[in-house]
Design a protein that fits this description.
370 residues, mainly alpha, Helix Hairpins
């Protein structure tokens, strides 16, 4: 029994330390399926979604879902600490049966003593009599001290990546509207030049490259809701992908280069997020359909930016093929994270076929009536 207790304690402590090392310190993605934090997020997110489904749709439900990201990190740190304390407590309890004259302390009391050593409280209610047990206390105290230090240093890095991800959405919301649409985004740029649109897409290529790194190393960032109401990192990514799809399908070779680069970078974000969260692509894809009527409304706006843009049958077929490369993963992530994907065209704006200045005026007056 003592050997089993020691073995379980060693496995529990080592598994926790490896998991904490991979999450906090390792600057690369970990593809191994058997990970403590992976099962933690899978179980806690499933429970959180179940509770969220009890709420009616609206702001309160969204606020409840938005709490999960930060709270899950606190719960993960608490799980790591509890696992280490129990693991070292089992090792101390098991050593009593192997080392003569080492005293007889119950398992619960040994776990309490282990917590005392882990947080370096120094009560000294139970002092080990054997040198091996004392060495184990020293190791646990050093582990606890390092664990607390790494936890304090980890959270600012995590929030730095979250801020860099969300900062791009401030500028995006002004151009794409609330809720964002590809039509509103194109309408914003139709009075400018195609070069200005290409520079803007270049900024989003850089944003996507940064997000690939963040999503690979910090997959829990996907659970962090945006601080801007009506927007999300996944919805913004969807709108820019939609715009790139239109430009690639109907523009000439010289005008599609930047759109192609941005499209590839954004699609890689979807691949990385789906892989890190183990989310399967949605089958079949049924939402956000771009019908011919919607494309007819978009065509004049696009041609104000790119006069040679085509809407012939080859271009339509190219749009369908390109969408099949990202829509399944996009909708799979949206369903998993309980995020709503934006439409191609705002129905209220499309009813009057207003884009560009009129759409912007309506957007501003709707959200700022005073």
């Amino acid at each position: 029994m003592t050997l089993i207790a020691i073995l379980v304690g060693v496995v529990l402590a080592l598994a926790t330390l490896i998991d904490a090392f991979e999450v906090v310190l390792l600057p690369r993605p970990v593809r191994r399926r058997l990970r403590l934090n992976r099962y933690f997020f899978k179980c806690t997110w499933a429970a959180w979604v179940w509770c969220a489904d009890l709420w009616p749709s609206g702001r309160r439900r969204e606020d409840f879902i938005g709490v999960f990201g930060p709270l899950s990190m606190v719960m993960l740190f608490a799980l790591w600490a509890a696992s280490l304390i129990v693991g070292f407590g089992l090792m101390q309890w098991g050593l009593q049966g192997l080392v003569p004259d080492s005293g007889s302390v119950g398992l619960v009391d040994q776990i309490i003593v282990s917590g005392d050593a882990f947080f370096t409280l120094g009560y000294g209610d139970n002092v080990p009599h054997h040198s091996l047990a004392r060495l184990l206390v020293i190791v646990e105290a050093g582990t606890g001290f390092g664990f607390i230090a790494l936890t304090i240093g980890y959270l600012p890095v995590l929030y730095q990546h979250f801020t860099r991800r969300d900062l791009q959405l401030i500028e995006f919301s002004a151009r794409a509207g609330t809720p964002p649409t590809a039509a509103a985004l194109l309408g914003w740029h139709m009075h400018g030049t195609s070069a200005a649109l290409e520079r803007w897409l270049r900024d989003w290529e850089i944003w996507a490259s940064d997000l690939v790194e963040s999503q690979a190393v910090y997959p829990m960032l996907a659970f962090y809701r945006s601080q801007h109401e009506g927007h999300s990192w996944l919805g913004s990514l969807a709108v820019v992908l939609d715009v790139c799809t239109l430009l690639i399908a109907g523009a000439d070779d010289m005008r599609r280069l930047q759109a192609t680069a941005t499209f590839c970078a954004l699609r890689r974000v979807l691949d990385e997020a789906s892989e890190s969260l183990r989310v399967a692509p949605a089958r079949p894809v049924s939402t956000r359909l771009l019908d011919p009527e919607a494309l007819r409304l978009l065509t004049p706006t696009i041609r104000r930016i790119l006069p040679d843009w085509r809407d012939d049958e080859p271009a339509l077929e190219a749009i369908r093929r390109l969408r099949r490369t990202y829509e399944p993963r996009l909708e799979g992530l949206a369903a998993y994270l309980l995020l709503q994907l934006p439409e191609w065209i705002n129905p209220e704006v499309a009813a009057g076929e207003r884009f560009g200045r009129d759409a912007v005026v309506q957007e501003l007056t709707d959200h700022h009536p005073d």
